[in-house]
Design goal:
- This protein has one domain.
- It has 306 residues and is mainly alpha-helical.
């Protein structure tokens, strides 16, 4: 809301801003190729796997995955990317999409089985299959997918890249900036995998642990967001020197960025925490009735239609 009001009041910079919004679309070739391949492989595998797993792979999962890929493309190719060098609040919007919008949507698509089914069979049999059976790979994957390791990796990446010295590196090098985005996206994919545990994944920790898992991450977000809001000085020199495209001063821009991060990320963390809490506090007979209903639906959908 702060950003929208600022954009509306920015009379002096309206021409510059309108030009960026109108012509700020880009076409990053490598991300486009990568996301297109990802989408093709997933959808091919989803159609194949859905023939035998209609209950586990309903239509909404495919829609969620597609929405995640589209949101990722918008973060990288839309005027959001063009404005991120001028407005910190827009830059934080981009980070929000990379960490809290695209990853959970893609994880909700239950991508494990569709991705494996969508790949060429020879690749799965000759490369992926043998790799998954290797002891060292199994041990390594057990370590890097441990919920504690993932939580630390995601929050170290989140806080570390926003330290002023590290943040300024990204403004001086496009490659470092791209690597920062990759860190955000990959660690967030892993984080939301733990939280959502999509089929056929089995949670490593009891379900109740998701609540402190989310709340602890929200505390890290509060620390960073509060620092930006209440710092009282511009923390990132590149934004102090950036040309102004709105009426926001650099300090107001920083406060708007922190406010947006504070509210948006907290909502993303607290909603699933509340949902898990409600599930755990539901009476036993309600949980049993839901489980029985799911079992009946699964059996019914597994029966081929004549």
């Amino acid at each position: 809301m702060i950003l929208l009001l600022a954009l509306a009041d920015a009379d002096e910079a309206a021409g510059s801003l309108n030009g960026i919004l109108a012509h700020g679309w880009s076409f990053p070739v490598l991300p486009f190729i990568g996301l297109t391949l990802l989408l093709v492989i997933y959808l091919r595998g989803w159609f194949l796997a859905r023939k035998t797993r209609p209950y586990e792979l309903p239509e909404w999962r495919a829609l969620a995955f597609v929405a995640g890929v589209v949101s990722l493309w918008l973060a990288l190719a839309s005027p959001i990317d063009a404005l991120d060098d001028s407005l910190l609040c827009v830059h934080m919007l981009q980070h929000f999409i990379l960490m809290s919008i695209a990853p959970p949507l893609m994880i909700l698509g239950a991508p494990m089985v569709p991705m494996l089914r969508g790949l060429p069979r020879f690749l799965v049999r000759s490369v992926i299959g043998p790799l998954l059976r290797m002891r060292w790979f199994h041990a390594l994957s057990r370590f890097v997918t441990h919920p504690a390791v993932i939580w630390l990796a995601a929050n170290i990446a989140y806080l570390g890249w926003h330290v002023p010295a590290m943040f300024e590196l990204t403004s001086r090098s496009e490659r470092i900036h791209d690597f920062e985005h990759l860190c955000f996206f990959v660690t967030s994919l892993a984080y939301w995998w733990v939280v959502l545990a999509p089929w056929p994944a089995k949670p490593r920790w009891p379900r109740w642990t998701v609540i402190p898992y989310l709340l602890a991450a929200d505390m890290m977000n509060t620390i960073l967001s509060g620092t930006l809001v209440f710092a009282g000085k511009v923390l990132y020199a590149s934004y102090a020197a950036a040309p102004r495209v709105t009426s926001l001063t650099p300090l107001q821009d920083q406060a708007a960025a922190g406010s947006f991060m504070w509210v948006a990320n907290s909502v993303v963390f607290l909603i699933p925490a509340m949902m898990v809490t409600a599930q755990l506090l539901a009476p036993r007979h309600v949980r049993e009735r839901r489980a029985a209903t799911r079992a009946r639906l699964q059996m019914r959908r597994a029966i081929p239609q004549k």
